[in-house]
Amino acid sequence: MRPINLLEPIAEYKWYQIQYWPFFMLAFRPMFLCAAIWAILSVALWAGVLAGELSWRAQVPATLWHAHEMIFAFSGAVASGFLLTAAQNWTNVPSVSGFKLGLLVAIWCLTRYVFFVHPNLVWLVLIGQLTFWLTAIAFLSTMLLRAKSKNNYIFIVILSVLCIFNALFLLIIERGDFVLARSFTQVAVLMFMLLIGIIGGRVIPFFTARGLALDTQIRTPKLDRILLWVSIFGVTGFVLSEVFRLPLNPGYLLALAALLHLTRSVLWFNRKVLAVSLLWSLHLGYAFGAVGLLLLASHFFSPVIAFADALHLITLGGIGLLIIAMMARVSLGHTGRPLQVNATVNAAFLMIALAAICRAFLPYLINPHHAWLYSAALWCVGFALFVRYYFTVLTQKRVDGRRG
Question: Nearest to residue 352, comparing CAs of 265, 277, 296, 243?
């Protein structure tokens, strides 16, 4: 009889065998989970600063730290994780996994630690962010170029532009021009709306048709192309107006983009989605983004709508709700689980939707400071519920025995 080796189970999980850990088999697993946990921690810390419970003595304003972590860190991690995972399906080229993926996640996590504990070390944060973005872009580019997937090259461009905006944001902070730095976070939000327009146009009709067992999915190729170019020109106009201070009004193009988003939202809608939480959350998130963009455009014609309130309807509703809904759907699909969720996940979607409404509209009814704190609390509860349910999904093997 072979002697029993009590250390054998441990030996199977040596650091260099990381490629066999389910958590590091595909990018969506660690990036989604780490981003969700950071969504809770970073907003809780931000709420603590707002409430006066935590002191903030750094030269970098807490508002800009908050904006950076939610836009470039949280949203950037989810976008990278999604694209690196989806690209494997698009190209049949194996995506990054194992030790390389673990290293990418470690860089992202370490940068989060540095920027909160030592926020004045902006140059170190810049190195961390550039390393993360450029590594993710290199992995994605390798897959798409190897498969000659020309239809998806635009994602390389979008991630590269976000990387450039992130670097400029940090360089401008180092220089002390905080007003200009804030403009780059706003431009990045519009870039994420452009990314959502492309990805949403592909997956929302597809997920809707699959989820409702429809024979065909709704396609709007001409509308999609028009929206893409209007969005590009809208972002360009915003940059010229807000960054270079040219006498232009980007409100017209932003309003047109918003109306095109709303048109697609109406065309995609089917009353049956209201009974499927994995679908209504996607449709509502997309609609939030469109309405938020329309309100943002209206600010350039009338100061009645506060710019920050409209922007937060986009970030919390259009980006936040779509992100949590996409993570929920993608995580189940890529781990071989049934596309069904329980009351915990339904509550998570509802919390994020309410957080967006509270942040965008409640300041007009009550003390804005209180509205912001209520919104932050709802956001944290929503993502805590998501982590509670999806921690096992994202860290354990596929239920169908396949690798991924």
Answer: 277
What is the model's pLDDT at position 9? Answer: 45
Encode the chain in three state secondary structure: CCCCCCCHHHHCCCHHHHHHCHHHCCCHHHHHHHHHHHHHHHHHHHHHHHCCCCCCCCCCCHHHHHHHHHHHHHHHHHHHHHHHHHHHHHHCCCCCCHHHHHHHHHHHHHHHHHHHHCCCCHHHHHHHHHHHHHHHHHHHHHHHHHCCCHHHHHHHHHHHHHHHHHHHHHHHHHHCCHHHHHHHHHHHHHHHHHHHHHHHHHHHHHHHHHHCCCCCCCCCHHHHHHHHHHHHHHHHHHHHHHHCCCCCCCHHHHHHHHHHHHHHHHHHCCHHHHHCHHHHHHHHHHHHHHHHHHHHHHHCCCCCCCHHHHHHHHHHHHHHHHHHHHHHHHHHHHCCCCCCCCHHHHHHHHHHHHHHHHHHHHHHCCCHHHHHHHHHHHHHHHHHHHHHHHHHHHHCCCCCCCCC
Rounded to an integer, what is the distance from CA 43 to the centroid of its chain?
A: 15
In this predicted model, what pLDDT tens digit does every residue of 139-176 receive, in sequence order?
A: 999 999 999 999 999 999 999 999 999 999 999 999 99
pLDDT in tens, 175-196: 999 999 999 999 999 999 999 9
Report pLDDT for 399: 83
How far apart CA 84 and CA 32 sit, in angstroms, is 12
pLDDT at 240 over 80: yes
User: Is the model's pTM score more than 0.90?
Assistant: yes
C-alpha 321: how far from chain center: 9
Instruction: Give the Cβ contact number of residue 9 at 10 Å.
Output: 8
Structure tokens at 228: 């893409």
Q: pLDDT for 280-299, tens place per residue?
A: 999 999 999 999 999 999 99
Of 148, 151, 140, whose CA–CA distance to 94 is shortest?
A: 140
* Band of residue 21 on the pLDDT scale cut at 50, 70, 90: confident
Alpha-carbon span 205 to 220, nearest angstrom:
10
* Residues in Cβ contact with 135 at an 8 Å cutoff, skipping those fewer than 6 apart: 104, 107
Given a cut of 50, whether residue 6 has pLDDT beyond it is no
